[in-house]
Write a structure and sequence with these properties.
- This protein has six helices and four strands, in the order ααααββααββ.
- The protein has 136 residues and is α+β, with helices and mostly antiparallel strands.
- Strands 2-1-4-3 form a four-stranded antiparallel beta sheet.
- The longest helix has 13 residues.
- The relative contact order is 0.19.
Length: 136
């Protein structure tokens, strides 16, 4: 582990020298992959909606950076935990792919629905999102 990496880890995460020295190879890879993750955004765009009280329009979206930080200034859909919750597993896949220098759009699942079940199943609304990554 070189000094530049140690200093970066300590400064960025507030780690002590001892904590920094104890980082596993995986933890080091996560830190070293930060630049690659900053180079991309994950876009979750509304492709279908029915009955949602937030009145989403096709094309409304959530945007995160490649590390999962919600970029609220770029979001056009209101913050809704029921809509964001299903995005978590995909965000981990994107995070992992970017950390390893892989195409972040190579994941198998590129559509998710909010957790509301819709009127037919006792809920109220349903919103479907297409997920993609693009350069930041």
């Amino acid at each position: 582990m070189d000094e530049e990496f140690k200093n970066t880890a300590m400064k960025t995460f507030g780690f002590t020298a001892e904590q920094t020295e104890s980082l596993s190879e995986k933890q080091q890879a996560i830190i070293k992959g930060s630049a690659a993750r900053r180079a991309y955004k994950m876009i979750m765009e509304v492709v279908a909606a029915e009955g949602c009280g937030y009145k989403p329009k096709i094309g409304d979206r959530y945007v995160t950076n490649g590390s999962g930080k919600l970029l609220t200034e770029e979001c056009t859909f209101p913050i809704c935990l029921w809509a964001l919750a299903p995005m978590l597993p995909i965000s981990y896949v994107v995070f992992d792919r970017l950390t390893h220098g892989l195409d972040p759009n190579g994941h198998l699942y590129d559509h998710m629905k909010c957790t509301d079940t819709g009127v037919a199943c006792g809920g109220l609304g349903e919103v479907a999102f297409k997920i993609r990554c693009e350069p930041a």
